[in-house]
Amino acid sequence: MTNPSAPSHVAIILDGNGRWAKARGLARVVGHEFGADRVREVVRAAGRAGVKFLTVYALSMDNKKRPADEVAALYRLLQRFAETERNELVGQGVKVEVVGDIESLPPACQQAINGLCEATAAGQGMLFRLAVAYSAREDVGRAVQKLARQVEAGALPVGAITPEMLREAMWTAGAPDIDLLIRTGGEHRLSDFMLLEASYAELYFTDVAWPDFSADHLLAALADYARRERRFGLTSAQVQAGGVLRQALAR
Ligand code: IPE
Ligand code: IPE
Ligand code: MG
Fold first, then answer.
1. Does residue 3 belong to any structural domain of this protein?
2. Which has the least CB within 10 A, 140, 159, 161, 162?
3. Is the alpha carbon torsion for 72, 74, 78, 81 positive or negative?
4. Which ligand 1 atom is the nearest neighbour of the CA of 28?
5. Model-level pTM?
């Protein structure tokens, strides 16, 4: 049995901006500028395709260790995106949230992103999450600290801790696990992105660099997903018997 419906949660590791620019004799930053424009198109296309949750990995915690001028340009682009896309996203009914260490961003960038989140908070359409200053390992580490503090305060017996509680304590709480994880730019790795949330994600790698990634490329990834059989550890026969798949999906 394949997946006739659109994946509920699509996540994208947008990659290849720098190499795309270099191949054209341009500065890496120019690749990021073109890349920012693609986000607009892909958000719109995902909403139209029936995706309920879209997470885009725009800046990792490790990316902040890049040369200062590149990092500053990335912050500027994030800020500009948050300011210029606001009305468009409100109009589409998209609700925007951030996952990551937003407090580590420059104040102007934080303000713009928080402003975008507030302006779109009532959106009833797709939930669009920007992963910025994000690290999966950091998210798990901080969530463990939160639970440990409750244990320390005597409010939580150690034996009562469940994987679900850990997930609830994370930045990424409030969205289901990833169904389809797309990485552009030709690399086949996760680069510290949503390691728990991607446990049963269908992985889709494409050589297309992010500045070239279009709505049609997204639709091709969705079509590929639709042809896959997700088994969640079960047998094909069990999956085809139905019901069981829904139980597994409900986890
Ligand atoms: C992705 O493109 C954007 C960010 C990581 C911020 P890269 O900047 O990683 O581009 P490549 O991988 O060097 O081509
Ligand atoms: C991952 O891409 C981070 C984002 C897409 C924001 P990188 O380009 O930083 O990953 P590596 O260094 O190739 O693993
Ligand atoms: Mg890269």
1. no
2. 159
3. positive
4. 8
5. 0.95
